[in-house]
Amino acid sequence: MPGISLEKIEAIAPDQASLVAARKLVKPTGWSGLSCDDTGLVWGECQGSGSSPYRVVISETDASYKCTCPSRKFPCKHNLAMMWMRAEGKTPFQAAQTPEWVEDWVRRRRPSSTRPTADDEEASKPKNLSAATAQPSEEVDPKAEARAAAARNRSRLEREEAVLAGLDDLDRWLVDQVDAGLAVFPQHAGKSCRAIAQRLVDAKAPGLASALDNLPNQIYGLPEHLRATVALEQLGRLHVLAEAYRRQDVLSAELRADARREIGWTQSRESLLSEERALCVSGSWRVVGTVSEVQPDRLRRLETWLWNEGAVDGPRTAVLIDFVPVASGQTRGAYRTGERVGAALVFYPSARPLRALVREITSPAQDCDAPLESPGADLAGAMAGYEAALCTVPWISIWPLMFGNGRLRRDGEKVFLCHADDDGIALPVLPSQATIAAPLLAIGAIDGFGLWDGYSLRLCFAQTPLGQWVSE
Hints:
Elements lengths: L5 H7 L3 H8 L7 E6 L4 E6 L7 E6 L4 E4 L9 H12 L5 E2 L4 H9 L11 H5 L4 H6 L7 H39 L8 H14 L3 H15 L3 H23 L6 H11 L5 H6 L5 E15 L4 E10 L8 E9 L13 E9 L8 E12 L11 H14 L6 E13 L2 E6 L6 E3 L17 E7 L4 E8 L2 E4 L2
Parallel strand pairs: 1-5
Antiparallel strand pairs: 1-2, 2-3, 3-4, 6-7, 6-9, 7-8, 9-10, 11-12, 11-14, 12-13, 14-15, 15-16
């Protein structure tokens, strides 16, 4: 997700005076509730001259902003100060559930123009962050810093307690579903899952809440005779995740990070990029798949899947994930399937690293019609990799499959991905892809990439004797 840069702040500031005023607020003292989520929203409260603090929110996806102060300059000094703190990465922002007042702003806002409004004469004058920094600033108050640190720690502990209480409620709910009989669970899954998901939102476990919100659609998308079995598997997955979170102290650091991230804890972009021990992999990355889906919270999730063609060590597959408001109209990420880009990627800590951020672009993205280099194992090897990943992180829901020597076959209305030599593997392709994948039925062996959820395959990319096939 693109962050706020110092250059961006300098460009959108209404005038130099606003930058000077903002610089004085670039410190934790005077701020409370500095928080962020994994959709690019950042918020907090800044104490002004009145009795009530000003509520400040920015979106890092498009540099839009809002503040409750009465300033006639846009963005105001509070917005600029928050952006500045994010750009410098020195001030910690606690990952948290988005409060109602921020969600209300997201629902109401339109994509913000980055053109500031200010006096024309002042706005036309040069603006410089260095000059603003050079202005005399107030000395840091050690006691205020200590109070701010204590408040952040208290907030973290309170959230930990809230999450554990939510997991206890989840346990009781799971027992109730088993007692009622999982054969009838699909009949009332929508209402039942929504109720416990809302409870988990209140418990500050948004990752679990999202999984439960998505469960009914996953079940209803399957044949009726499979629904009870899938419900059992998915509810068991949630139980395993809850138990892993309770036993974090005995988990490896990587698996602990996986469990916390799945529950809903987030790590800021700045924190990951500044982490010296973070796994960084450089190379030539081929874009092998893109996914765009609207979530229940009215945010669009944009996934870009990359394959490191020449990798020797480290992960060969990576996914970049961005979140944008549906109202923005953006429906795709920065890259298209088939492009090749040179980049250094930093991976989030994980027992099976997948999600990453771009640290540096070494060569710009370009269309590439060349065949995939080192497309990976055959279909049997790809599935073995999935099973190994599941043994390491048992709550995995989606896993990338890069395969060679595959072939599409039809059985009635269904399409399956099989090994070209008929070794018994047959993975059902998403029913919604049956039509667009039909041309591949007449082609022999293919190399390709897809996303496997344990029940069906989303085919994203295929290299055929006639050229590339993409699902876009």
